[in-house]
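Re: that backbone. Tokens:
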């Protein structure tokens, strides 16, 4: 059942993004940024955690999940460090994922020798 929930949750998030691309004049970059902001806002309102509990990876892997991760990191850091946590919490919480993305991107670039297509 977890796989089905993840598929449905991730599918709905992707479908909403595709509808926004097809039906509005928003650029993909603005939609992606909006997803991160939506994740932060839904976390602040306490609405994203139940979605993440139900949807599992379908809710935590997309960009809304990244926004949720940033919000949770800031919340934790503020409770531990005070207002300094506003500046450090989000980056501390997301450091592992960001590092993995950079490392794997470099690894793929070394293996596949990317370049301009002619």
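Recovered sequence:
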């Amino acid at each position: 059942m977890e796989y089905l929930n993840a598929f449905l949750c991730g599918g709905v998030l992707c479908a909403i993004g595709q509808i926004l691309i097809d039906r509005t004049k928003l650029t993909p970059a603005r939609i992606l940024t909006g997803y991160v902001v939506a994740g932060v806002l839904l976390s602040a309102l306490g609405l994203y955690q139940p979605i993440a509990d139900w949807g599992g990876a379908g809710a935590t892997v997309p960009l809304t999940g990244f926004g949720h991760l940033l919000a949770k990191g800031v919340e934790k850091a503020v409770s531990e460090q005070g207002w300094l946590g506003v500046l450090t919490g989000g980056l501390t919480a997301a450091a592992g994922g960001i590092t993995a993305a950079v490392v794997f991107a470099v690894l793929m670039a070394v293996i596949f020798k990317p370049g301009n297509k002619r």
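Residues 2-112 form one domain. The chain has a mean pLDDT of 90.
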